Structures are given as structure tokens and as C-alpha cells.
Amino acid sequence: MLIAIFDLDGTLADTLYDLADATNHGLIKLGYPTHPYESYKYFVGNGVKKLCERALPDDKKADTDTLLGYFSDYYGSHYLDKTKLYPHMKEALTLLADNGVKLAIATNKPQDFARSIVKELLPEFEFIKILGGCSERPKKPDTAIISEIMAEVPDGNNTVFMIGDSNVDVETAKNAGLHSIGCAWGFRGVDELKNAGADFIAETADDIPRFILR
């Protein structure tokens, strides 16, 4: 069985602007400087608490939980203001599903937000699991999220791909013994993916089914 496990932010959907707006909203509430969108490409990837910590001034890291609260309140009402799927992503997922590939999502984004975004943007697709950051399991690159997905799949001759846009996703794949596909259009860029040792680099979404179904 072929299985494709996708990251969400920077992989399936461009969520950067809504994440940045929510964080900047909280920074303004706290009276701290905000950041341009480009900076958020390097703040995201390890969950929203780490995003908030990275966005704070060096001498204000103790305010991480407060900023996280402001972020969550704002993001809960604005997580789809600017978020959109990357070009040809629906076509790529359709081709995979039509060829019997099982789909799943493993993201460090809070699980409730992840499921809401997927429900809104990809309602026509069936996923084995849509898992995100929560208190019950450690975040990627820990493999707990992968193990939970694979528990839903019959044991056998499975070939599994982890598709993501950052070194976190490549490291997760390595830790779990999966094939990795790095997404060049994501937040971190090709150099990070190559340096992390991605097995394949997808220049566009159309490359994903080509690598998996080869």
C-alpha cells in the first residue's frame, strides 16, 4: 500500500499570512515590535508556542504564553482570511487518491485549527488521519504522530512518504524510516531541504504524484 503523509503549513496550503497577522496582533497588544511576513517563514515549523517565542524580543520570552493566548483568540476567527491551497494541490491529491494512495496529514499546527482548515479547503478528500499539535503527543520531528497514523493502516508491504517544506519534515521522515519529499514552494526553501537530506525535491505540486507513483 502506498501512503502519503502531508505536512499542512507551507506544504498543502500557504498559511503564512494568517499566522503572521495573528502573531503581530498579539505583539501589538503587548506593545512589542511586529515583524514582516518574510520573517515568519523562519518562525514557524515547530508549533505555535515556539512561533510565539521566536517572535518575541530576546528579553521578553517570558511572555510567550501571554502572546500565545492573544494569537489563539485572533487566529480562531481569522485562520482562513488569507490562507489558500498551493497551485495544482487538489489535482495532485486527486491523482494520488484515484491511484489508491492513502492520504494523511501530520502537522505541528494545533490539531483543531488543522482539521478546520482541511475541512474548509479539502472537503472532498478522505484522510486516514488529520493530526496536529496537542498535549497528548510530542511534536515532529518526534515520530509519535507518524505511529498514530500508521496504527490505522493494516500491517504489510507499505511504502510511506512524508511530504513537507522544512527540515522538521525531513527529519521526521528519517526518524520514522519513511521516504521524504521536500516542497520547494514552502516556507524554508530548497537549500534547507537539500541540506536536511530530502530524498526528492518537488518543484511544483504536480511532482508529488510523479515521485510516489513512479
Q: How would you portray this structure in words?
A:
With 214 residues, the protein is an alpha/beta fold. The chain has 2 domains: 2-14 and 83-212, 3-Layer(aba) Sandwich (Rossmann fold), CATH 3.40.50; 16-78, DNA polymerase, domain 1. The protein is built from 10 helices and 8 strands. It has helices at 16-30, 37-40, 48-55, 64-78, 89-98, 111-121, 144-150, 167-176, 190-196, 207-212, and strands spanning 2-6, 13-14, 84-85, 102-110, 127-133, 159-164, 179-183, 200-202. The strands form 2 sheets. It has a 6-stranded parallel beta sheet with strand order 5-4-1-6-7-8, sandwiched between helices. A two-stranded antiparallel ribbon has the order 2-3. Strand 4 (102-110), helix 6 (111-121) and strand 5 (127-133) form a beta-alpha-beta unit. Helix 1 (16-30) crosses helix 4 (64-78) and helix 3 (48-55) crosses helix 4. The longest helix has 15 residues, at 16-30. The chain is globular, with a radius of gyration of 17 Å. The mean pLDDT is 97.
